Amino acid sequence: MNPRSTRIARLVPMAAAIGALAVLSTTACASPSQEVAQASGVSTQQSEYKGTELAIPTPIPAVTLTDFNGKPYDLKANAAGKLTLVYFGYTHCPDECPTTMADLASALRLLPADKAAKVQVVFVTTDPDRDTAPVLKAWLGKFNPDFVGLTGTVAQVDDTAKLAATPVAPPVKNPDGTIEVDHGTQVNAFGTDGLAHVVWLAGVAPKDIAHDISLLT
Known about the structure:
The chain is an alpha+beta fold. It contains 6 helices and 14 strands.
């Protein structure tokens, strides 16, 4: 497809009176859904993280999707004892998705092996019709063969994203045949306590991600 210009995620205050609260905008070709989940408030305290620290940590979704091997994948159960980095996107994405996966792979290479071994990257497709299991597996393998790809129905993905406070919208097919897929561009870093205390927005450097992973593991 011929992708149109994309919009990079930014934290935008909801109101001056509630400056700590924010919503995450999306990347893709269409305007975001009116029903997307709201992000947790941003901490106003000075943070030790290079990413965005959340004032209200987000619990990891207790959902079961399907991995790229065709097996049920309990997101919460598989995250036990690990730092689980969850990203919602699609393999046909022209910019943010491949860039983010490459950045995460680079960040893991910057870490000592014992630290990297405690991290699991999970990519949840927002375009399940096109992102079949073989497509997901081959695409993620280009970045790191240990990355896990998950899929489900559009409704299942949408529900999971809402629980993860990540805005997504169902794929939309245009009259010219192009497909637009809106999705938030943040990486949710769920710690061993099952909570995301920090997210990384588009543009955070691999060295900064590695810095935060060292604090979170």
